[in-house]
Design a protein that fits this description.
Blueprint: H1 3-7, E1 12-21, E2 24-34, E3 39-43, H2 50-57, E4 65-70, H3 78-82, E5 84-87, H4 99-107, H5 116-123, H6 138-150, E6 156-160, H7 168-183, E7 187-192, H8 195-201, E8 204-209, E9 212-217, H9 219-224, E10 229-234, H10 239-243, E11 250-254, E12 257-262, H11 265-275, E13 280-286, H12 289-306
Parallel strand pairs: 3-7, 3-8, 5-6, 6-7
Antiparallel strand pairs: 1-2, 1-4, 8-9, 10-12, 10-13, 11-12
Helix pairs in contact: 4-6, 5-6
C-alpha cells in the first residue's frame, strides 16, 4: 500500500472513542483510520477490545464518547450497512436452511449483490451449496459466513478471527481471498490474535491492550521497535551453557537447533563461532511479530504498574 493511498479520505474513522460494558471500561481514547486498499489489523490478547471495536463500527454497540464514521455515515445506518460486510465470531444464521438458501438470503439484502457462482468461488463453497447448514463442519461454516459477508460486494469487510476452525489449505485460500480484495481496492479490517495470520496479511497493525492503543505501525515497523535478533544454528553447545553468556537472552533448543533471542547478535555469533568451530546452518533474523507483540505489551504493562 502506498503513501498516496493513506493520504485519501479514510473509509472508517474512530476519534477518541470510549466504550463501557457492564460497568467496565473496555475502550479508552481509541483513534484509528482504515483506508481503501489496505488490510488493517487489530491485534491483541483476548479481552483487549478487538471485538468491541468491530461491534462499535458496525453499530452493534454505542460508544460512551467519541466519533465513528463509516464511509461518512453513522455506524449501523442503511448506507453504512450496504457498503460493508462482516464475518463475526458470534455469527448466527437462521436454522434449518441449506447453504444456497443462506447465500441467497444474504444477497437479497443488497441492491447489487455478488453473483452466487462468484461468491462460491471466492469463499470456497464448491460442493457445499446443497448441504444443510446444521451438517457442516466448523471450518465449512466459516466459509459460508465469509460468503455471506461478501454477498453485498462490500467496500469495507470486517473479519473477526476469520480462520478459526479452518485447516491449513482452507486458511491459505481465505488469505488469498483477502489479498484479492485488497488488490481490488477494498478495505479489510481484521481482528485476530493469530500472529502468523497478522504477519502474512496486514499492511498496518494497531496493537491493543486493556482497551488502549499500544502501537500503530506496519508489521516490519513493529519488529524494528525492539533491539532483539533471533539467532538459529546447529551446534554442540548446550542451551544451559549459552544461557550463561552475557550476550545471550532467551535460549531454547528447537528442532535440533539452538535458538537465541539477543540484543547483541554480532557479539553472540562471534563467541559461538570461537567456541564451536563446527557450528553450521547459522541464521540471524529480526524478531518475529509475536516477539515484538510480547515486548511492547510487556513494556506497556510495566508502565501501567509503575504509574
Amino acid at each position: 500500500m502506498t503513501g498516496d493511498t493513506l493520504s485519501e479520505k479514510p473509509l472508517v474513522r474512530l476519534e477518541q472513542v470510549d466504550c463501557r460494558r457492564g460497568g467496565r471500561e473496555v475502550l479508552k481514547g481509541l483513534d484509528l483510520e482504515v483506508h481503501a486498499g489496505e488490510v488493517f489489523t487489530l491485534l491483541g490478547p483476548n479481552g483487549a477490545g478487538k471485538s468491541t471495536t468491530v461491534s462499535l463500527i458496525l453499530g452493534l454497540l454505542r460508544p460512551a464518547r467519541g466519533r465513528i464514521s463509516v464511509l461518512g455515515h453513522a455506524p449501523g445506518s442503511l448506507a453504512a450497512r450496504q457498503a460493508t460486510g462482516a464475518m463475526l465470531q458470534a455469527g448466527s444464521v437462521p436454522v434449518g436452511l441449506r447453504v444456497r438458501e443462506l447465500v441467497e438470503l444474504a444477497r437479497a439484502g443488497y441492491p447489487d449483490p455478488v453473483p452466487e457462482r462468484e461468491l462460491a468461488d471466492l469463499a470456497g463453497l464448491d460442493g457445499l451449496l446443497g448441504r444443510d447448514w446444521d451438517r457442516l463442519s466448523g471450518g465449512q461454516k466459516r466459509r459460508v459466513l465469509l460468503a455471506m459477508a461478501l454477498a453485498g460486494n462490500p467496500r469495507v469487510l470486517f473479519l473477526d478471527e476469520p480462520t478459526a476452525g479452518l485447516d491449513v489449505p482452507a486458511k491459505r485460500e481465505l488469505w488469498n481471498t483477502i489479498d484479492a480484495l485488497r488488490e481490488a481496492g477494498r478495505a479489510v479490517l481484521l481482528a485476530t490474535h493469530d500472529m502468523t495470520e497478522a504477519d502474512a496479511l496486514t499492511d498496518r497493525v494497531l496493537l491493543l491492550q486493556h482497551g488502549q492503543a499500544v502501537a500503530l505501525d506496519s508489521a516490519d515497523g513493529l519488529r524494528e521497535r525492539i533491539p532483539d535478533r533471533r539467532v538459529r544454528c546447529r551446534t554442540a553447545l548446550s542451551p544451559t551453557e549459552v544461557a550463561d553468556w552475557p550476550e545471550a537472552g532467551h535460549v531454547r533448543r528447537h528442532e535440533k537447533r539452538l535458538e537465541i533471542l539477543t540484543p547483541q547478535a554480532e557479539r553472540l555469533v562471534a563467541r559461538m563461532l570461537r567456541t564451536d568451530p563446527e557450528l553450521s546452518e547459522l541464521e540471524v533474523r529480526a524478531a518475529s511479530l509475536e516477539e515484538a507483540f510480547m515486548h511492547l505489551t510487556d513494556h506497556e504493562q510495566n508502565t501501567r504498574e509503575a504509574a
